[in-house]
Amino acid sequence: MKCQRCQENEATVHYTQVLNGQKTEIHLCEQCAEQEGYMDFSNDNMSIHQLLTSMFPFDQNVNQQQSVSPKHQLACDRCGTTYQQFRKRGKFGCSNCYHAFEAYLNPIFRRVHSGNTKHVGKIPKRVGGNLHKQRELEQLQAKLQQLINDEAFEDAAQVRDQIRKLKEELQENQDGDA
Amino acid sequence: MSLQNFINDAISPWMNTEGLDNDIVLSSRIRLARNFEQVSFPTSGDQEALSKVLEYMQQEFDQQSYKDFKQLQLVKMKDLKPVEKRVLVEKHLISPSLAEKDETGAALISKSEQASIMINEEDHLRIQLYYPGFELSEALNKAQELDDWFEEKIRFAFDENRGYLTSCPTNAGTGLRASVMMHLPALAMTNQINNLIPEINKLGLVVRGIYGEGSEAQGQLYQISNQMTLGKSEEDIVEDLKSVVKQVIENERRAREWIMEQLGIQLEDRIFRSYGILANSRIIQSKEAAKCLSDVRLGIDLGLIKDVSKTILNELMVLTQPAFLQQYANKHYHQMSAMYSVLI
Ligand SMILES: [Zn+2]
Ligand SMILES: [Zn+2]
């Protein structure tokens, strides 16, 4: 099998990524896997410490090329943690750090969570109904796609109606908020 | 203060109840990491802010009860002697790193010791629940309820995309670490465990020996837990872990049958030798004690030893930890039977 990214080398790294309830298989060569920010957990009983030190594998690279990149002057405006401190410790200083460093977080999350960057689990009640519905909508859309692939059109029609209803509800709520 | 119970009793009350598949799975644990939205994380070292978190938790939750979790008691690290802290660590009620947080560290522990909420460890709250046997789904349900209860009063840091926000990126999303503690003597005896561990790792799960870092698992106890916390729902994380644990249970059962058939009298000899050592020795190294305890527990589970309680392994694994021995020797030495005369 050829690497999906460069279409040249043999794919030696295989991931199953689950996003919004949808499973995707990813096949890459080693170089592309590294560049894309994936990491292989296999054959390795990794401690949290090892995990942290492997979170930022391109440090050297970055330091050599652009020692005064804007990334390095970045700091959280609430707790004062700088991006460099975050990189060194592997720990955020407060919840706002997630927003302050947002532009650089996807590769890190991909690395430590098997390719995932988006939360699909529990939502606090206070966050309200719309996010719950949004989540439900995403799941239904994935289900619809699956049913269509399986040519289960009767079931698909039902799911399509559910989606329509949910979208209307979401629309109403949004109009209400405005 | 009834703090003394947490420290004096070798086993937590919840360990005395029987759980599913408890001939192999000793306990199930669920941990949820949560943080206050407007307060810097404990990793920031802002002691003033963390003191406020501690004060708030004491005011709102000390001596409260919620459903199954009666009489939550707030225990501050600064009020504990070093040996008392170590006992709580060995009973897994607190982590070693919480024990070091003398200024603002605390734990909210239920009477049954089934729930222990660590305060100001790496995250503001680490909600931990323990169940006997293989009860991950039940443990998750109860942990969610407890989380909802806290959430009625506390605004937790949450982001639509990243989920529950935690100090370490490795916990973000669900903040969920689900784990089981398994006794796998037959897989160890037949050397299958060494092949199994890399296979389990490939599935994104972590396997650890229970006592001693990195080295061979003492007492053939292994902890299996999820690695990834983002991108999967809590239920899916638990279901995926459960399906792997089920397979490990089946493998261990098969290996037990195999060693019974193949080793016969040799196996019985090994088990009863260990029994003899535990029953009659006067001085024993903790490592040897762990091996013997594992053998005896296997003997009980195989029906070879009939007059010893199953919880003996739970109890003795805690008892043979250094801090507990010290504490136990101080208070209860006169009560220790020959079976318990385990010295380091
Ligand atoms: Zn490639
Ligand atoms: Zn910050």
Automatic annotation (TrEMBL), chain A:
Signal peptide: none annotated. Residues 130-176 form a coiled coil. Gene3D superfamilies: UVR domain (4.10.860.10). Residues 134-169 form the UVR domain. The keyword Coiled coil applies. Keywords: Coiled coil. This is UvrB/UvrC motif-containing protein.
